[in-house]
Amino acid sequence: MAKSEQVLIRITPERKDEWESELEDSRFSSLAEFIRFAVNNEIDGNHDNSEIVTDTFREVIENKSKDIDSHHSEVIKRLNGIEAAINGVQEEMGGFATVAEDMIIETLPIIDETDYFSDDASPPYDQDVQSMYEDAMSAEQVADELDVPVEPVRRTLQQLAMKSGRIQVGTGDNSERRYHINV
Description:
Elements: H1 13-24, H2 31-44, H3 47-50, H4 54-92, H5 101-107, E1 110-111, H6 126-135, E2 137-138, H7 139-146, H8 150-163, E3 167-171, E4 177-182
Parallel strand pairs: 1-4
Antiparallel strand pairs: 2-4, 3-4
């Protein structure tokens, strides 16, 4: 191994302060190591790669911007296609895919079934039941009240009747299903 030599250089105190300030933010542990690295980079020509030429940088940014704009346009086209497909499916299904259960529950009449039966606690007669279901609402009536398509209301009412004991379903005179909330 060859003996190392010492090189002395003179710089102003201000320049030395600048270098030491840069040293604090760098990966180097000493000013000598920092200077050796800078000089070797200059000799090896690596300094050219560390500077960004403004025109080249601007060109790269413009190309990326065009790529992003193109990608954005494609995404918007796809989203519009998806939205059109969803709207088509909704129209085929008779409107909204679902109607909020809360809206339907608020619309249904509340009926105390015992109000329709005779006082002697005997089983209800057909006319009592018929009278009760006349006061209940059909899916069509609920849909009209909410101003929404009938099919989603019908499906939601059927689901509510299956999962809640309070939502009652029965048939009126014309075998139409009618719904109410039982208290």
